[in-house]
C-alpha cells in the first residue's frame, strides 16, 4: 500500500514538472526571448493554468497525510528556500492573472510582465535548490548546532545551486517546445527553434554541472546512478533522446518533439526517483527518512489511498476533457 | 515581538487574507450561474454582460485565492511542524478530499472562463454549476479540518503520540457540522452584500439595468443567508458551549460559573478583577442561548486554570462585532424580502441603496471577527486539550522577518486587487455610457 501511494506521489510530481514546469518555463522563456513569446505563452497556459498547479497541492497533501515527518523535516530545514519559492508563486501567479485581465494599457502591462518573468525565474531556481537540498543529505536534525548548519548549509551549496540552474533550463526548454507547437508563424517558429537548440545545449551542460558539483560536495551521485539498474536505464534513454530532439527540432516536427521532450523529462525524474528509493529525505548523520520509517499508520494510508483513487478517477477524465477542449481543437477554431 | 507571537500573527494574516478570496471564489460562480441561466432563458443581453463582467473579477480573485491557499498548505508546516507531524495523518483526510474538490473546481473554472465559444450553451452553463458545487465542497472539507482542532477526535493520545487513528471519525468530529453550515452561510452573505453594495453605489450614480439585475441576483442569495445566519450562529454557540466551555466563557466574558447566566452585550472586560464594565446584561439569556434553558448552569472562566484562558478582551470584542453585524445584515435581508414581495418602491429608494453601500465590507469584517473568535478563543491550544500552540512552534529563528515580509506582500496585493477592481468597474461604466 505504501508503494502505491509513493507511486501516485511520483506521478503527481512528474505531472507537476511536465505541466506546471512548462508554465514556470513560460515566464523564463519570455525573459530569454525579450517578450517575443508573451502572447503565445499567455494564450497557451491561461485556460490550464489553475489546474496545472493543483498537482503541487496534491504532492503536499500526500506528504503531510502519508509521510508527515518528511513534510515537517523538509519545511523546517529548508524553510528559507521554500519561503522564496512561495513568494515567487504568489508574485508570478498574481502578475500573470493581472496581466491577462487588467484593461489594456501599456505601463501596467509592462510591469506585470516583468514581475511575471523574473519571479518565474526565481521560483524555479529555488524550487531546484530545494530539491537539491533534499537529495544532497546535509539536512541536520541536531538543533543544538548553529543557525548556519541547520538552516543554511543544507541548501546553500554548489550542488543545490546547480540543481536550481538545471531546473531553470529544463523548464524553459519544456515551455519552448510547447510554444513552438502553439504558433503557426514562420518567424516565431524560426526563433524558437533556435532558442530551443541553445537550451538543449545548456541542458546538457547544466546536467554535467549537477554531477560535477555533487562530487565536489561529496555526494556520489555518479556512483549511485551507476549502481542502480533502473536509473542507469533512464539515464541512457534520456541521453539517446537528445540527438532525436535535435533532429526533429531542425525538421520542425512539433508532435514528435513534444513527445520526446516529455519522455526525456520523465526519464530524468524517474531516474532520480530510482536512485532515491526508498529514501525520501537524506539526513547528514545517515539516519535517512525512508518510505517505511516516515509512513503514517495503515488505516491512514488506506483512507488516503481511497481518496486518491477516487480523486484520480474523477480528475483524469475531466482534465483530459479540459486539454482536449483547449489544446487539440486549435485547428478547428 | 517574539518568535511565537510573530508566527501566530503570520498564520492569522495569511489565513485572513486567503479566506476573503476563497469566499468570493466559492460564491461568485453561483451568481454567475444565475446570470447566465437568466440570459439563456430571457435572451436579455444584459445578463450575459453581467456574467462576463463578473467573470473577469472572479478570475482575478480565484487566482489570488489559489496562490494564497498554496502558500497556506506549506505555511502550516513551516510554522507549526510539530503540530503537522502529529495532526497531518489524523485530520489529513478532509484535506485529501479537498484536493480533489479543488482540482475539479480549477478545471471547471478554466473551461467556464475560456470556453464561451468552445462549449455549447448548456454544457457551459452547467460547468459554472460544477465550479460552485466543488467550491462549496472544498470549503466544507477545509472547515472540517479546522473543526477537528477545536474538537479533536478519531485517535487516542498516549504519551504524546496519537494511536488508533481513525481518519473518518476525525473528519466527522463533533464541531464540523456547526462550523461548516455557519461558514458557508457566512460566505454567501458576505459576498452577496459586498457585490450588492458595489452595484448599489453605481446604481445611485447611474440607473443602469445591469446594476439593478446584479443587486437582485446577489441579494436573493445574501438575504436568505443573512436570515439563516443568526440561527446557524446559535447552533454554533451551543456546540461551543458543549465542546469548549472556556471559549464560550471568553467570548461572553463570563467569569463566574452560575445558573441563569446573563447575556452580556458590549462592555469592557476587566480580566484582573474578573468583571465586565459598562455592559448591558440580560438575565438568563446566556443560559438559554448556550443550553436552551433559562436556568441552566454555564461554566465561567474560573473553572479553568488561568494559564489556560484565551485572551478574553479580543475574543469578546470580536464576538460582539460579529453578532452586531449579523443582526444588521439580517435586518437588511428582511427589508429586501419584504421589498421584493410587496413594497417594490422601497428598493428604488436612496436610503435603501445607501444602506446597501454601507453594508459592502461588513460581511467580510464579520468573517474575520468570527475567525478570531474561533482561533484566538481556542488558545492556548492548537489541538484543543491535547497540544499547546507554543509547543508546536518551528525551531527556526527569525520568524519576525518572515512575518513582516508576508504581511507586506499581502498588503500590496490587496491594494493592487482593489485598484484593479475599480478599473474594471470604470471600464464597465464607460462601456454602457458610450452605448447610451
Ligand atoms: C458574515 C459573517 C458572519 C456573521 C454575520 C456571523 N458569523 Fe459567526 N462566524 C463567522 C461568520 C459570521 C465565521 C467567520 O464564518 C466563523 C468562524 C469559524 C466558523 O466556522 O465560522 C464564525 C464563528 C462563530 C462562532 C464560533 C464557532 C467555533 O468557535 O467553533 C460562533 C459561536 C458564532 N459564529 C456565532 C454567531 C452568531 C450568534 C451570529 C449572529 C448573528 C453570527 N455568528 C454571525
Ligand atoms: C480561513 C479562515 C481562518 C482564519 C481567518 C483563521 C485565523 C487564525 C488566526 C487569527 C490565528 C491566530 C490565533 C492566535 O494565535 O491567537 C490562527 C491560528 C491558526 N489557525 Fe486558523 N484561521 C482560519 C482557518 C483555519 C483552518 C481551516 C486551519 C487548519 C485546518 C487553521 C489552522 C490554524 C493554525 C494551525 C493556527 C496556529 C496555531 C494557533 O494559533 O492556534 N486555521 N488562525
Ligand atoms: C488552513 C487553511 C487552508 C488551507 C491550507 C487552504 C488551502 C488552499 C489551497 C492550496 C488552495 C488552492 C487550490 C487551487 O489551486 O485551486 C485553496 C483555494 C481555496 N480555498 Fe483554501 N485553504 C484553507 C482555508 C480555507 C477556508 C477556511 C476556506 C473556506 C471556505 C477555503 C476555501 C477555498 C476555496 C473555495 C478555494 C478555491 C479557490 C478559490 O475559490 O478562490 N480555504 N485553499
* Bound molecule types: CIS-heme D hydroxychlorin gamma-spirolactone, protoporphyrin IX containing FE
Give me the number of helical elements of chain B: 13
Strand percentage of chain B lies at 5-15%
Q: How would you sum up the major sheet of chain A? A: 2 strands, antiparallel
What distance lies between the first and last C-alpha atoms of chain A, to the nearest angstrom?
45 Å
Structural class category of chain A? mainly alpha
Order of helix and strand elements from N to C terminus of chain B: HHHHEEHHHHEEEEEHEHHHEEH
Q: Quaternary status of these chains?
A: heterodimer
Relative strand content of chain A = under 5%
* Largest sheet: number of strands, sense, barrel closure of chain B: 2 strands, antiparallel
- Which protein chains make the most extensive interface, counting residues with beta carbons within 8 Å of the other chain's beta carbons? A-B, 66 and 66 residues
Low-pLDDT ranges of chain B? none
Shape of chain A: globular
**Strand ordering within the main sheet of chain B:** 1-2
Fraction of residues in H or I helices of chain B: over 70%
Write down the Rg of chain A: 20 Å
Textual characterization of the structure:
The complex is a heterodimer of chains A (333) and B (436). Chain A has 333 residues and is mostly helical. Chain A has one domain (2-326). In chain A, 81% of the residues lie in helices and 2% in strands. Chain A contains 14 helices and two strands. Chain A has helices at residues 2-32, 38-45, 49-66, 68-77, 79-101, 106-136, 147-152, 158-182, 186-216, 221-226, 229-251, 254-276, 291-294, 298-328; strands at 279-281, 289-290. In chain A, strands 1-2 form a two-stranded antiparallel ribbon. Chain B is mostly helical and 436 residues long. Chain B has one domain (3-158, 169-435). Chain B contains 13 helices and ten strands. In chain B, the strands form five sheets. Chain B has a two-stranded antiparallel sheet with strand order 1-2. A two-stranded antiparallel ribbon of chain B has the order 3-8. In chain B, strand 9 (381-383) and strand 10 (387-388) form a beta hairpin. The longest helix of chain B is centred in the first third of the chain and has 40 residues, at 3-42. The mean pLDDT of chain B is 88. At the A-B interface, helix 3, helix 4, helix 5, helix 7 and helix 14 of A face helix 2, helix 3 and helix 13 of B. One protoporphyrin IX containing FE (HEM) is lined by residues 8, 11-12, 15-16, 18-19, 76, 80, 83, 142, 145-146, 371-372, 375-376, 378-379, 382, 389 of chain B.
Amino acid at each position: 500500500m505504501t508503494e502505491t501511494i509513493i507511486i501516485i506521489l511520483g506521478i503527481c510530481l512528474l505531472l507537476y514538472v511536465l505541466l506546471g514546469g512548462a508554465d514556470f518555463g513560460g515566464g523564463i522563456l519570455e525573459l530569454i526571448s525579450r517578450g517575443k513569446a508573451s502572447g503565445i505563452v499567455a494564450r497557451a497556459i491561461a485556460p490550464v493554468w489553475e489546474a496545472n498547479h493543483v498537482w503541487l497541492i496534491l504532492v503536499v497533501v500526500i506528504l503531510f497525510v502519508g509521510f508527515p515527518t518528511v513534510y515537517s523535516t523538509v519545511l523546517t530545514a529548508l524553510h528559507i528556500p521554500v519561503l522564496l519559492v512561495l513568494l515567487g508563486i504568489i508574485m508570478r501567479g498574481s502578475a500573470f492573472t493581472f496581466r491577462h485581465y487588467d484593461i489594456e494599457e501599456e505601463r501596467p502591462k509592462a510591469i506585470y510582465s516583468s514581475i511575471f518573468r523574473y519571479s518565474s525565474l526565481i521560483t524555479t531556481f529555488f524550487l531546484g535548490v530545494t530539491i537539491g537540498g533534499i537529495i544532497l543529505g546535509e539536512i541536520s536534525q541536531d538543533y543544538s548546532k548553529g543557525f548556519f548548519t541547520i538552516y543554511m548549509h543544507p541548501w546553500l551549496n554548489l550542488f543545490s545551486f546547480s540543481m536550481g540552474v538545471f531546473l531553470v533550463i529544463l523548464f524553459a526548454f519544456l515551455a519552448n517546445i510547447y510554444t513552438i507547437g502553439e504558433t503557426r508563424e514562420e518567424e516565431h517558429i524560426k526563433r524558437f527553434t533556435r532558442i530551443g537548440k541553445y537550451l538543449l545545449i545548456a541542458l546538457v551542460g547544466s546536467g554535467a554541472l549537477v554531477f560535477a558539483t555533487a562530487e565536489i560536495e561529496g555526494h556520489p551521485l555518479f556512483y549511485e546512478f551507476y549502481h542502480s539498474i533502473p536509473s542507469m536505464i533512464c539515464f541512457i534513454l534520456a541521453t539517446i533522446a537528445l540527438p532525436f530532439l535535435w533532429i526533429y527540432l531542425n525538421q520542425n516536427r512539433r508532435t514528435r518533439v513534444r513527445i520526446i521532450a516529455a519522455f526525456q523529462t520523465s526519464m530524468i525524474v524517474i531516474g532520480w526517483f530510482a536512485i532515491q528509493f526508498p529514501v525520501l529525505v537524506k539526513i547528514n548523520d545517515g539516519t535517512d527518512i525512508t518510505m517505511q520509517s516516515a509512513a503514517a499508520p495503515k488505516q491512514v494510508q488506506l483512507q488516503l489511498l481511497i481518496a486518491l483513487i477516487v480523486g484520480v478517477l474523477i480528475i483524469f477524465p475531466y482534465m483530459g476533457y479540459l486539454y482536449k477542449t483547449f489544446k487539440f481543437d486549435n485547428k478547428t477554431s | 515581538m517574539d518568535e511565537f507571537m510573530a508566527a501566530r500573527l503570520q498564520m492569522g494574516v495569511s489565513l485572513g487574507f486567503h479566506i476573503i478570496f476563497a469566499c468570493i471564489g466559492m460564491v461568485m460562480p453561483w451568481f454567475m450561474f444565475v446570470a447566465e441561466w437568466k440570459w439563456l432563458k430571457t435572451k436579455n443581453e444584459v445578463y450575459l454582460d453581467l456574467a462576463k463582467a463578473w467573470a473577469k473579477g472572479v478570475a482575478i480573485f480565484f487566482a489570488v485565492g489559489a496562490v494564497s491557499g498554496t502558500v497556506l498548505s506549506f505555511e502550516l508546516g513551516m510554522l507549526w511542524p510539530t503540530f503537522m507531524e502529529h495532526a497531518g495523518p489524523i485530520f489529513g483526510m478532509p484535506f485529501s478530499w479537498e484536493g480533489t474538490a479543488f482540482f475539479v473546481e480549477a478545471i471547471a473554472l478554466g473551461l467556464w472562463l475560456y470556453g464561451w465559444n468552445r462549449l455549447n450553451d448548456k454544457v457551459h452553463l452547467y460547468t459554472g454549476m460544477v465550479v460552485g458545487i466543488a467550491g462549496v465542497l472544498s470549503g466544507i472539507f477545509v472547515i472540517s479540518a479546522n473543526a477537528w482542532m477545536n474538537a479533536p477526535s478519531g485517535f487516542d493520545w498516549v504519551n504524546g503520540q496519537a494511536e488508533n487513528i481513525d481518519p473518518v471519525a476525525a473528519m466527522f468530529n463533533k464541531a464540523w457540522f456547526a462550523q461548516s453550515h455557519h461558514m458557508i452561510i457566512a460566505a454567501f452573505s458576505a459576498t452577496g452584500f459586498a457585490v450588492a453594495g458595489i452595484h448599489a453605489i453605481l446604481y445611485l450614480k447611474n440607473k443602469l439595468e445591469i446594476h439593478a439585475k446584479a443587486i437582485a441576483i446577489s441579494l436573493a442569495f445574501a438575504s436568505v443567508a443573512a436570515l439563516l445566519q443568526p440561527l446557524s450562529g446559535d447552533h454554533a454557540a451551543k456546540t461551543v458551549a458543549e465542546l469548549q466551555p472556556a471559549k464560550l466563557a471568553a467570548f461572553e466574558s463570563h467569569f463566574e460559573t452560575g445558573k441563569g447566566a446573563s447575556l452580556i452585550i458590549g462592555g469592557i472586560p476587566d480580566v484582573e478583577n474578573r468583571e465586565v464594565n459598562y455592559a448591558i446584561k440580560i438575565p438568563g439569556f446566556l443560559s438559554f442561548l448556550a443550553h436552551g434553558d433559562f436556568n441552566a448552569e454555564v461554566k465561567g472562566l474560573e473553572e479553568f486554570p488561568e494559564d489556560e484562558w484565551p485572551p478574553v478582551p479580543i475574543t469578546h470584542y470580536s464576538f460582539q462585532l460579529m453578532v452586531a453585524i449579523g443582526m444588521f445584515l439580517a435586518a437588511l435581508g428582511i427589508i429586501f424580502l419584504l421589498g421584493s414581495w410587496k413594497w417594490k418602491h422601497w428598493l428604488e429608494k436612496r436610503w435603501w441603496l445607501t444602506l446597501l453601500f454601507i453594508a459592502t465590507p461588513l460581511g467580510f469584517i464579520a468573517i474575520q471577527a468570527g475567525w478570531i473568535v474561533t482561533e484566538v478563543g481556542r488558545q492556548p491550544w492548537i489541538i484543543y486539550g491535547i497540544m499547546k500552540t507554543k509547543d508546536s512552534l518551528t525551531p527556526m529563528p527569525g520568524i519576525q522577518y518572515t512575518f513582516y515580509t508576508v504581511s507586506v506582500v499581502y498588503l500590496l496585493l490587496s491594494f493592487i486587487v482593489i485598484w484593479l477592481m475599480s478599473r474594471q468597474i470604470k471600464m464597465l461604466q464607460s462601456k454602457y455610457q458610450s452605448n447610451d
